[in-house]
Design goal:
The protein has about 270 residues and is α+β, with helices and mostly antiparallel strands. About 55% of the residues lie in helices and about 15% in strands. It contains 10 helices and 7 strands. The radius of gyration is 23 Å and the shape is elongated.
Length: about 270
């Protein structure tokens, strides 16, 4: 150890290389964590950590039978893990191939792309609100929402006001669930979201509003809701719901959120 410190002291360039090496590994681990955050893979990772701790303790304490059993479990896991994590691995490889592994889709969008997306979204919301058609639209940001695809229908379609309106038509088979936007694409339709855990959410609000708050409690997503009974437009962010949002305000909020300048705009446009 001491000789290594002397070597590094005499070779300052190696210190820089090692720091860069550590930073790259840390960044990759961070991106992998963000990729699986909000998915079932998180619980599996926790299980693996428990097994790792148990294996370490059994080996150190000389618990030979338990150690043998855990070693065999690890052998089986090496075969099973690629199957268990198949959706996450496939998504990671797809993003790597498209150059999107290190950058979220919405971050690849320039101001013009964001403006076009928001225009289509607000145009759809305006029609839905006018017709009192219930709707729930979720915009994915840093936290991956890949697990929602399991409860809905994968679309991977370009965002358009007409398509969004049709998805929420009462006779549409997907109208009851949420639509999830990933970048400038409609990723999933008819998805079912976790309901809000906060006791501060009014019981008078329907399932759509509670689901909007719920998904923003568990992720950094943004959710837009149109009430089926009143046509009132609401927006949820960070577990907080703001109601009676006008179309112009909604457009301003969404552009602010997706441009990562949300805080001041949200507070200015927010009306309980």
């Amino acid at each position: 150890m001491f000789s290594q410190l002397i070597y590094l002291k005499n070779n300052p360039a190696m210190i820089i290389v090692n720091i860069i090496d550590i930073l790259i590994v840390a960044f990759v681990i961070y991106k992998l964590m963000m990729l699986i955050k909000g998915t079932k893979a998180v619980q599996l990772i926790k299980g693996l950590v428990v097994l790792l701790i148990a294996s370490t303790f059994s080996s150190q304490l000389g618990l030979n039978t338990i150690d043998w059993l855990l070693n065999n479990i690890w052998t089986m896991l090496f075969v099973a893990l690629p199957v268990v994590f198949q959706p996450e691995l496939r998504r990671a490889l797809e993003q790597l191939g498209r150059g999107k592994f290190f950058v979220k889709p919405y971050k690849l969008m320039n101001k013009e792309d964001i403006s076009d997306l928001v225009d289509e979204l607000t145009r759809a919301v305006q029609v839905l609100a006018k017709n009192n058609t219930g709707a729930l639209i979720v915009i994915e940001r840093e936290t991956g929402l890949g697990d929602l695809a399991d409860s809905g229908t994968k679309l991977d379609a370009a965002v358009s006001a007409e398509l969004l309106v049709n998805l929420f038509e009462p006779k549409s088979p997907l109208h009851d669930g949420a639509v999830v936007l990933r970048g400038d694409r409609i990723s999933v339709a008819g998805a079912f979201l976790p309901l809000a855990e906060s006791v501060s959410v009014s019981r008078a609000l329907g399932t759509r509003h509670r689901a909007a708050v719920g998904i923003t409690e568990q992720s950094d997503a943004i959710a837009v809701v149109v009430s089926e009974e009143t046509g009132i437009i609401s927006i949820a962010n960070e577990g907080q719901l703001s109601r009676y949002i006008e179309i112009d305000t909604l457009k301003e909020l969404l552009i602010g959120f997706m441009s990562e300048s949300k805080s001041s705009i949200f507070e200015r446009g927010r009306r309980k």
